[in-house]
Write a structure and sequence with these properties.
The complex is a heterodimer of chains A (493) and B (665). Chain A is α/β, with parallel strands linked by helices and 493 residues long. Chain A is built from 21 helices and 10 strands. In chain A, strands 5-4-3-6-2-7-1-8-9-10 form a 10-stranded mixed beta sheet. In chain A, helix 3 packs parallel to helix 8, helix 8 crosses helix 12 and helix 8 packs antiparallel against helix 13. The longest helix of chain A is centred in the middle third of the chain and has 24 residues. Chain B is α/β, with parallel strands linked by helices. Chain B is built from 19 helices and 9 strands. In chain B, helix 14 runs antiparallel to helix 17. Chain B is globular. The chains are: A alpha/beta (493), B alpha/beta (665). At the A-B interface, helix 5, helix 6, helix 11 and helix 12 of A face helix 7, helix 8, helix 9 and helix 14 of B.
Chain lengths: 493, 665
């Protein structure tokens, strides 16, 4: 049995136990939803300050312009984007009722009609959309923190349970967008993590240096600057304690790259025909770019280009077309996506979140179950206690959770490992196949896998036995050894 | 036509009567008053504001140098200088001349603050037209940079090293070693400030620009320190960019800032980059309105300004928004500072006129009734003696003042120390409850913010107490001089009442707006030109203690991070760092507090001694002149009487014009 399936089974078992205990109480519905959640895709919240580019990045990840974006503050209510069989938009009202909303698509953009509901009445919006990009994770767009719009920040704080240690968060993992390092960002990250595993954890958080194209006044080397900044942030101990990595992403380039249309590419081509010095002056500022006499292209068309690409993107696209590197919309899309850093983010999401989805969901489930147990104690003290004990038991005995603990300790620097060892732990705790986890070729024989596992056990046990280690480190190395044992056992069994 | 001519003191007025000159009209239309920016003459954009420079653009007429009321006031004050020269009162003349100099070049401190990476340094460079402040995509400014005018360009850094304050000259390319995160992360090198003296048109107008490090959050300790600094600044340029609307901490900061600083401008940078910048400006305007913050918003692009200056492109310069910013700076900041200086100078002119009128009137009265001359002269002599006695160090007001200052100093010191003790205690308690390495940032931020507030409080208290003390002394002197006047010099009706009244400008003439923050320290009361020379440094005295100490806290973070495990030991270390910080601040702030009060005391003593001296001089001259006149023959006496009448007429006219000028301002 794979580790992931194992987590699922353990959580199911816990849910069964809990169900027996809460039978006939209002908590039963809660347990059903916890169980339900285990079979759904991982929930990834996109959070950050106002105008960090959350909705834009969400659109880029989905590859469609579903989340509304705007220069002003835009996302006012927590919105869920999940895989659906059909197209459907629903609003959950503060009163708890759920209502279907009408929507239409305008030039690729989703427009939701709130109908007779006021935004204040709406608790959240669910967009169910058939998209393969939503099959592995449900994305949750949140209103910006530090917003001046009354209520918007509160909603995000509520949603992420920032000020309430007892409440679980509805998200399993978080993509935190930061434009520049503010201590507020760090505070936010710290507050996000509950303390079921550890106080803070880079296990389920990825930080993104967003709007990377705007750094350095949109100069041609903006993205290189952004990469350097992200790298520096990534070295910062405080950030390492909170997020696995900091990736520079130009969300707008990514969004437009994934949704670029041929007529947009042809507008760019039209612009490249302008005489060089004139073009240079035209690209000095947005106002110049939009000046009626600057080009034969309709001002409206140019404005759309700017909205879609930003000044940096327009400059980049024009340069690439002029140099002959891009001819069609397809080429241009690829160039924009490559420049945006989206692919790196996707692969990190895959390795870091999707591959460990079961463990991460299980972790969320345990928190939810603990809350149920707490509520149960109000009704039946003994039953509540028993449930607590069961949860404790499962958390300790489920190796996938131990692996998350190991990962957490490694990522936060609590145990010092060489780079090779870090790569090994990453591999070992990923949700991949046995071969991958054991670090052998894809076509390795069972025997080779077992050999590798045995070597791993010996290596980590030896490290764990060092008398110089403190308890936590020894435990961590022991976890790695046991992961190899698991691999060995699975091959054998 | 001139009321006084230096060569011929008693010249009659043209046509034998006092004629009202045609006052220049002041056009209220701002647009007519805007400066024409001529990039060809850059960096002297401000030269465009001088009356004497030649027109820049043939198409546009050069607007007047300053609003007409200021110019009118200046002319009146100039008359005051001429009058005191003509009537040989060098003591009064010197005072008016000093005030006039300040009017021509008002010391104006403009502080630039805002969050990280909003383009503060680029903005300062844009304003000055040269890359004085290092600009970097990633690493931000980490120390205060002060830019002021100097005929001999020089750059120096003032910092603390091993308990000593070091001032050393540096080269331009070394600025980044001291003022940026690159060379001086979190001001670990204990830089108090980097000072550049450069030849520059804007700075030559009396402006001192202060570029501050961006605060990660304006609510942090650093934000609190810059708020304290604002009390001593004439204006704040708050920098944000057009990438997004204002966020909560920014608006909160602005709300605090407008309480402390009379003029606040919000500059929104990077308009070249964001197509929707106009909308963001509108949204921000609404945010400000909702928050009750009165501040103009000026959108600019430093990038465009830079290109415009390189390529000498006038259109592009206009698009950069800098001409408008410079114009706003002039109307919102320089003109206001000019106004304040004008009020001070008018006050000096008025009291000078009053004194001279009084002296001449008494001489005239005695000449009109020579029977009582001996008696009157005796009384004047008596008054003179009593005034001279009042100047002495042993006089009552001097004793009250000295006692007042020692009480003030010890009170402020005591209060400050006990606040700091409280802060130390609560920080230590917090350390006891936590793992200090994981919460170090929050602990230190809170600590810095509390300490910044404590320092600000101490200076506010000095300011309040000095204000009160000054009121006491003024009232005392008013009573004493009035008594002298009433019992001894019944016939000399000089305006002693007026002389000691600290009329607050904000009440009467220009509304609340002009003076906020440290009133006494910044000489906001009429008649008292207090601590002009302190102006620049009171703010620094408030901000540097926190800045200088910060290095310890920063070092603390690295130290604590390296020691992962033993929490007890970490707490102990954390306490040591915190104590050291508090000690440093206490030492630094304590020194600054003592220096400040000492300077105040000296200023106040000199001020009152000088005023009494002027009064004594008035009586002395009245005695001498009267005695001289009495010795003359009949016809000379008659001519003297005519002369005195004319002088009184002219001085009365001057006084009337002072009042008109005050009304117009």
């Amino acid at each position: 049995m794979s580790a992931a399936a194992h987590v699922g089974e353990r959580v199911n078992y816990l849910c069964d136990q809990a169900m027996l205990a809460v039978h006939g109480t209002p908590l039963a519905a809660e347990i059903t939803s916890i169980r339900q959640r285990m079979s759904e895709p991982l929930r990834v919240a996109i959070a950050g300050r106002v105008k960090a580019g959350k909705s834009t990045l969400l659109n880029a990840l989905v590859g469609e312009r579903l989340a509304p974006t705007d220069a002003g503050e835009c996302t006012r209510v927590v919105s869920w984007y999940r895989q659906g069989f059909g197209y459907e938009v629903r609003a959950t009202l503060r009163s708890g009722e759920s209502r279907e909303l009408r929507f239409r698509r305008d030039d690729g953009r989703l427009e939701i009609n709130l109908g007779r509901y006021d935004i204040e009445e709406i608790d959240r919006i669910d967009v169910n959309w058939p998209s393969s990009n939503l099959s592995r994770m449900t994305l949750i767009d949140t209103p910006g923190l530090a917003s001046l719009t009354a209520g918007a920040s509160v909603r995000t704080h509520d949603f992420l349970a920032l000020h309430d240690e007892d409440r679980q968060s509805d998200a399993d993992a978080v993509l935190y967008l930061m434009r520049h390092m503010h201590s507020r960002d760090a505070e936010f990250l710290e507050a996000f993590f509950d303390d079921s595993l550890a106080n803070t954890s880079p296990v389920n958080a990825i930080a993104v240096l967003s709007r990377a194209d705007e750094i350095g006044a949109g100069r041609p080397d903006a993205l290189e600057s952004a990469a350097r900044i992200a790298e520096r942030y990534g070295r910062d101990e405080r950030i390492r304690a909170l997020s696995v990595s900091v990736l520079p992403v130009a969300g707008l380039l990514a969004e437009t790259g994934t949704t670029l249309q041929e007529h947009e590419a042809s507008s760019i081509r039209a612009l490249t025909r302008i005489e060089e010095d004139e073009l240079r002056r035209m690209l000095l500022s947005v106002d110049r770019f939009l000046a009626p006499e600057a080009s034969d292209l309709l001002v409206e068309t140019r404005r759309e280009l700017l909205d879609r690409l930003g000044l940096f993107g327009v400059r980049l696209a024009i340069q690439k077309v002029r140099s002959g590197e891009a001819l069609s919309a397809v080429d241009l899309s690829q160039i924009l996506i490559d420049a945006s850093g989206l692919e790196t983010l996707r692969s990190l999401l895959e390795q870091h979140f999707s591959a460990r989805a079961m463990a991460l969901k299980g972790r969320s489930a345990l928190v939810s179950l603990r809350n149920c147990a707490r509520d149960l104690m109000e009704i039946d003290r003994n039953a509540g206690r028993r449930l607590f004990a069961e949860i404790e038991q499962v958390e300790i005995s489920t190796h996938a959770f131990a692996e998350l603990r190991l990962l957490h300790m490694m990522l936060t620097g609590q145990i010092k490992l060489t780079e090779d060892e870090q790569a090994e732990v990453n591999r070992l705790t990923s949700g991949g196949g046995l071969e991958q986890r054991a670090g052998v070729d894809q076509d390795a024989t069972d025997e080779q896998i077992q050999q590798a596992a045995l070597a791993g056990i010996a290596r980590w046990r030896q490290r764990a036995a060092s008398p110089l280690l403190d308890r936590a480190a020894a435990d961590a190395f022991e976890i790695a050894a046991r992961s190899y044992e698991g691999i060995y056992a699975q091959v054998a069994g | 036509m001139c009321l006084w001519q230096r060569q011929k003191p008693s010249l009659y007025i043209e046509g034998g009567q006092v004629r009202e000159p045609a006052y220049p009209t002041y056009n209220m239309d701002r647009n007519n008053d805007s400066i024409v920016v001529d990039v060809r003459t850059f960096p002297g954009d401000w030269s465009a504001m001088s009356t004497t420079s030649q027109p820049a653009a043939p198409s546009q007429p050069r607007p007047p140098a300053s609003p007409a009321p200021l110019k009118f006031a200046r002319d009146v004050i100039k008359l005051g200088v001429d009058a005191t020269t003509a009537y040989e009162r060098p003591d009064l003349q010197e005072r008016i001349q000093l005030a006039l100099n300040r009017l021509d070049r008002p010391d104006t401190i403009v502080c630039v603050t805002g969050e990280f990476k909003k383009g503060k340094s680029a903005l300062v460079n844009g304003l000055l037209g040269d890359d004085y402040c290092p600009v970097h995509d990633d690493l931000a400014t980490s120390a205060i940079t002060i830019l002021r005018h100097g005929d001999e360009p020089s750059i120096s850094v003032r910092r603390h090293e091993a308990g000593e304050t070091v001032v050393e000259p540096i080269e331009r390319d070394q600025i980044r070693d001291f003022a940026t995160e690159e060379g001086n992360p979190e001001n670990a090198r204990n830089v108090e400030f980097v000072e550049l003296q450069v030849r520059n048109g804007l700075l030559a107008r009396g402006v001192t620009l202060v570029d501050t490090p961006g605060s990660g959050t304006l609510a942090s300790g650093y934000g609190a320190a810059t708020l304290a600094f604002l009390q001593s600044a004439d204006a704040l340029i708050f920098v944000t960019d057009c990438s997004q609307e204002l966020i909560e901490p920014e608006v909160e900061y602005l709300q605090e800032a407008v309480k402390r600083c009379a003029t606040v401008m919000v500059v929104m940078t990077k308009i070249d980059l964001y197509p929707e910048w106009r909308r963001i400006v509108e949204i921000n305007r609404e945010h400000l309105e909702r928050a009750g913050i009165e501040a103009p918003i000026v959108p600019v692009s430093s990038t465009l300004r830079n290109v415009a200056l390189q390529e000498r492109d006038r259109d592009l310069n206009n698009e950069s928004g800098f001409p408008e910013l410079l114009d706003a700076l002039r109307t919102e900041i320089l003109d206001q500072a000019g106004k304040r200086a004008a009020f001070e100078a008018l006050m000096a002119t008025r009291t000078a006129a009053d004194q001279m009128i009084g002296a001449y009137q008494s001489e005239l009265d005695i000449l009109a009734d020579p029977e009582r001359a001996t008696e009157e002269i005796e009384r004047l002599e008596d008054a003179k003696e009593r005034l001279n006695a009042l100047r002495g160090a042993g006089s009552r007001w001097a004793t009250v003042m000295n006692d007042g200052f020692s009480v003030l100093t010890s009170n402020v010191d005591y209060q400050f120390r006990s606040t700091m003790r409280g802060i130390l205690r609560s920080t230590e308690e917090r350390i006891e409850d936590t793992d200090p390495s994981s919460e170090w940032d929050e602990i230190t931020e809170r600590l810095q913010s509390d300490v910044a507030k404590a320092v600000e409080e101490a200076f506010n208290r000095i300011d309040d107490d000095v204000g009160q003390l000054r009121d006491t002394i003024s009232a005392m002197l008013r009573d004493e001089t009035t008594a002298i006047w009433q019992t001894s010099a019944g016939s000399i009706s000089i305006g002693v009442e007026d002389m000691w009244s600290e009329r607050e400008i904000e009440d009467e003439n220009i509304g609340q707006k002009i003076f906020k923050g440290l009133n006494a320290m910044r000489g906001s009361y009429m008649g008292l030109l207090m601590v002009g020379m302190l102006g620049n440094f009171v703010g620094l005295a408030m901000i540097t203690p926190v800045l200088i100490g910060a290095g310890v806290l920063f070092g603390g973070r690295q130290f604590l991070e390296e020691r992962k495990r033993d929490v007890t030991r970490k707490r102990q270390q954390a306490r040591t760092f915190v104590r050291q910080f508090v000690d440093d601040v206490q030492f630094e702030a304590g020194t600054r507090i003592r220096e400040t009060t000492r300077d105040f005391q000296r200023e106040m003593r000199d001020y009152y001694t000088d005023r009494i001296g002027e009064l004594a001089q008035t009586y002395t001259e009245a005695v001498q002149n009267t005695q001289n006149s009495l010795k003359q023959d009949e016809s000379s006496r008659e001519s003297r009487k005519r002369d005195l009448t004319t002088r009184i007429e002219k001085l009365t006219e001057l006084r009337r014009r002072v009042e008109i000028a005050e009304e117009r301002l």
